[in-house]
Amino acid sequence: MKYIYLIVLAALLRHAGAACYNGTDPALCTTCSGSCFDNNGCMCSDDETIPCVPTACQMTTMSLCCPSGYFWNSDLSCCSDTLICDPPCLSDEMCVSVSNVATCACNDSAYSGKTIADFSPSVSCNTVTMTISVSQCLLAHLGYDYTNMHLLNSSLAACRYSYSEIINNSSVRKVQLRVEDGWCGTIMTFDSTKLYYKNSLYIGIQNKSIITVSPMLLNFTCSYNLTMETSLIYALKPIQNTVTLPGPNGTGSYALTMAAYLNPNFISPIQADDTVEVGTLIYLGLFVANADGTAFSLRVEECYATPTNDPTDVNRVYIVRGGCAYTNDGVESVVKENGKSLEAQIQVSTFSFQGQLDVFIFCNATLCPKTQQCNMCTYNTRLARTSSTSFAQTAINIPLDYTSYLNSGSQTAVSWAVMLSFLVVLLKMNI
């Protein structure tokens, strides 16, 4: 009861002294069957050129329902002589009358004593966007115009766009940009461990007779750890392939990417203009985007190489079978990670097919529920692959150094199928 009493008392105090309009010029809409519309305001139905004052305002901007000196009071359902902003103003705003419209404006006294040293913009970084946020009313107090805020390179309309958002009951002005080199002047750099995206924000000054500040230029940076996925961003032509991976039991779909890397930390992608000598260790990285890593992990069931881009080519050499390294075909391979996270890492020593210039690597992968033993070895891969609808196959072509390996026959590998055919022919010749 005490809380109800306090609420009622607060409402009474708020409206104490508030007087509803009861004049005759303009008349109340109830006396002339009037109504309110956004396109022409509140008018009598008898003569649509005669304005009226409603007791039920349905206009988008309800203060426009009221004559000069009055403001719409939603609690009393009338035009009141008490200045009321509806919805209520934020914590750093105050209700003022602007052209007879109750308007929330920055309360300068809320920032009394604040200086530029108190101005601290925040930068939010995710894999897709960067967002810089500033306090609207603090900027206004300091003499800046938060409506004149844009990226320094404003060649595109999107570079000039800013928007307001309410955070902790205060207005915040934001600018959002894509994580992309060159977009609106964004500059990407990198070192051995991180990617950096840098840009600059321009904030203009208020149009006043007395100017106390200069336009502001804010430089901001987002940094990202170099990973198997992010390292592909700065590579110009990375050897990679992305396919759609069905979710478990056919529910949902995800992007499965496979790429080849030069180093064991998976941050130096092999690019289309590179060449790799036969016998070099390379690293195959597979990862899934936007999947729930707490519920699923990526399991690569098998990887094999062929001399053509036909995945059914009988001349194949296995690298991974049943989720584990397969060396029976004479190729050195190591499964560094598989079935533990949304990434899989495989090390393989490059080889070539006798008389062939290409090596295509195919991998079959699936999202494995973590309730299962996703990192276990099993060689029933053919049965698993044919009975499951949740596998996806991806492939890449390794750019070999043709000059090196064509001049040396000691670093080539052939599949058991090719070797068997050769032995059969040799046997017939002996007979």
TrEMBL record:
It comes from the Eukaryota. This is Novel protein similar to xl18. It comes from Xenopus tropicalis (Western clawed frog). GO terms for cellular component: extracellular matrix; extracellular region. GO terms for molecular function: extracellular matrix structural constituent. Its main location: secreted. Pfam families: Zona_pellucida. Residues 124-384 form the ZP domain. It is found in: Secreted. Gene3D superfamilies: Zona pellucida, ZP-C domain (2.60.40.4100), Zona pellucida, ZP-N domain (2.60.40.3210). Keywords: Disulfide bond, Glycoprotein, Secreted, Signal. Residues 1-18 form the signal peptide. The keyword NADP does not apply.
